């Protein structure tokens, strides 16, 4: 691979693998690559983790022209290193780029560069159960100019963070607040792209939910505020009367790779699964008549997180007595088993570094 590598001479001490939390520690190296309109992407390099210096007028600061991805590297019992469907993240990065008027990247090249970075940082992949090395590729617009137009200069970086579970609850069910005031995305907006603004715009609602004792908000559709969309850090699934349902990708929901994998797994397990519109009223009725059997969220960071309670307009829906459902548990075990190499992968999802 045509890539410059500068290794650090001062390695950091590794954090306690049982106390990682999410995204608090960073490894010794990073990947970085420049873009200029006249040159295309150039000078890919792996260098010691370091601060970057940007002009105060860099477009990303003013107009939010930026995209990101999230994936993980896993350590197997026999010390191999696995990635889970990384080609899908590269594909989605370019989908986000397209939406944000950022030039596309060479997906195959970036995946090879990412593998090199992981190989250099392999000692940072934590050994503890339920941990992994979170990989955060992202692109920022760096041209110093205040006109609202696509930047002529960008930086693409990949940083790595050893992580445990995303939620403080760990593998215990989270409580989710159904958001009624604010919306996350509308069709034609940026909801299907992984871009910073979607997350910034969600903070206000999340703060409100958090004050009421809820971990995250469940977003409703931006037009009627009637149909369930996603949580922001995860897609959502409900088991209603034996069938698993998840909101259909409608042009404002993020196309989650874990979401897609769970749909494949359910089909493989011969469990009925449907992608369709789901109103919050339907969930409420299903809860009232006892057919809302399980609820969980899916995401790279969140993995599979059981949902133990939904609150809609101060009406509480406790799901499965606030405990992890048996299907949720089975899906968690199968998915994480495939990811960490302890369960065979019938789908060809695993890529060895
Ligand atoms: C991920 O699951 O990787 C994400 O990007 C969600 C993020 C909000 C932590």
TrEMBL record:
Family matches, as InterPro entries: Aminotrans_IV, Aminotrans_IV_CS, Aminotransferase-like, B_amino_transII, BCAT-like_C, BCAT-like_N, BCAT_family
Enzyme class: transferase
Reaction(s) the record says it catalyses: L-valine + 2-oxoglutarate = 3-methyl-2-oxobutanoate + L-glutamate; L-leucine + 2-oxoglutarate = 4-methyl-2-oxopentanoate + L-glutamate; L-isoleucine + 2-oxoglutarate = (S)-3-methyl-2-oxopentanoate + L-glutamate
EC identifiers of the protein: 2.6.1.42
Signal peptide: none
Pathway(s) where this gene product acts: Amino-acid biosynthesis; L-valine biosynthesis; L-valine from pyruvate: step 4/4; Amino-acid biosynthesis; L-leucine biosynthesis; L-leucine from 3-methyl-2-oxobutanoate: step 4/4; Amino-acid biosynthesis; L-isoleucine biosynthesis; L-isoleucine from 2-oxobutanoate: step 4/4
Superkingdom, taxonomy of origin: Bacteria
Cofactor: pyridoxal 5'-phosphate
Family: Belongs to the class-IV pyridoxal-phosphate-dependent aminotransferase family.
UniProt-recorded name of the protein: Branched-chain-amino-acid aminotransferase
Organism the protein comes from: Fodinisporobacter ferrooxydans
Origin organism lineage: Bacteria, Bacillati, Bacillota, Bacilli, Bacillales
């Amino acid at each position: 691979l045509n890539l410059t590598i500068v290794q650090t001479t001062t390695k950091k001490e590794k954090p306690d693998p049982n106390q990682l939390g999410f995204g608090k520690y960073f490894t010794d190296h990073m990947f970085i690559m420049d873009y200029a309109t006249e040159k295309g992407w150039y000078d890919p390099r792996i260098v010691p983790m370091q601060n970057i210096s940007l002009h105060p007028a860099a477009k990303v600061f003013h107009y939010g022209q930026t995209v990101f991805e999230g994936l993980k590297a896993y350590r197997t019992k026999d010390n191999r290193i696995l990635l889970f469907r990384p080609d899908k993240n590269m594909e989605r990065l370019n989908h986000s780029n397209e939406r944000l008027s950022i030039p596309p990247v060479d997906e195959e090249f970036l995946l090879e560069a990412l593998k090199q970075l992981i190989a250099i940082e392999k000692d940072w992949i934590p050994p503890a159960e339920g941990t992994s090395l979170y990989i955060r590729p992202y692109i920022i617009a760096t041209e110093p100019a205040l006109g609202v137009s696509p930047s002529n200069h960008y930086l693409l970086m990949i940083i790595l963070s050893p992580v445990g579970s995303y939620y403080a609850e760990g593998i215990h069910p989270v409580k989710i607040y159904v958001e009624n005031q604010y919306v996350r995305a509308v069709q034609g907006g940026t909801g299907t792209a992984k871009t910073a603004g979607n997350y910034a715009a969600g903070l206000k609602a999340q703060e409100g939910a958090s004050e009421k004792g809820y971990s995250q908000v469940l977003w409703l559709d931006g037009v009627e505020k009637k149909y369930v969309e996603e949580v922001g850090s995860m897609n959502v699934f409900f088991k209603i009367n034996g069938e698993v349902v998840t909101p259909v990708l409608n042009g404002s929901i993020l196309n989650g790779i874990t979401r897609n994998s769970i749909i494949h797994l359910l089909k493989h397990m011969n469990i009925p699964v449907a992608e369709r519109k789901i109103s919050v009223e339907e969930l409420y009725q299903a809860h009232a008549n006892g057919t809302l059997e399980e609820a969980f969220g899916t995401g790279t960071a969140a993995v599979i997180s059981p949902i133990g309670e939904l609150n809609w307009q101060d009406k509480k829906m406790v799901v499965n007595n606030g405990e992890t459902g048996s299907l949720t548990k089975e899906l968690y075990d199968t998915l994480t088993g495939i990811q960490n190499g302890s369960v065979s992968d019938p789908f060809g999802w695993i890529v060895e570094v």
